[in-house]
Amino acid sequence: MSGGNQQKIVIAKWLAGRPRVLIFDEPTKGIDIGAKVEVYRVINELAGAGVAIVLISSEMPEVLAMSDRIMVMRQGRIAGFVNAREATQERLFALAVGHGEADVA
Fold first, then answer.
1. I want to staple 100 with a disulfide (CB 3.0 to 4.6 A). Which of 13, 16, 41, 94 is the partner?
2. Where are the domains of the chain?
């Protein structure tokens, strides 16, 4: 079974329990673009239905496209939060290396 289909099966199993919060850690790592689009569609539908989504990703375009609010961590600590509408790759990288400012509440 392809990586994308495996991801879809895992998500379907989670949904059977009707969760209020889901944590996705690198949900599209190693899957093809078609499967990524499907995973993004499912995540957006869940968020639209009121499920809280925590998305952990090392892919900057994914973080910028899928987030409402972004938390950046540096050395195991919160470096800051950025509203997705105000987020840029440069701002997030600056926080990640300790040269930026953002809300830390």
1. 94
2. 1-59, 68-105
Question: What are the residues whose beta carbons fall under 8 Å from the beta carbon of 5, sequence distance 6 or more?
Answer: 35
CATH topology of domain 1-59: Rossmann fold (3.40.50)
Global pTM reads 0.76
Tell me how far apart the alpha carbons of residues 20 and 52 are, in angstroms, rounded to a whole number.
Answer: 6
pLDDT in tens, 34-74: 888 988 998 999 999 899 999 999 999 999 999 999 999 99
What are the φ and ψ backbone dihedral angles of 68, each rounded to 5 degrees? Answer: -95, -35
Q: In this predicted model, what pLDDT tens digit does every residue of 19-35 receive, in sequence order?
A: 899 999 998 998 888 88
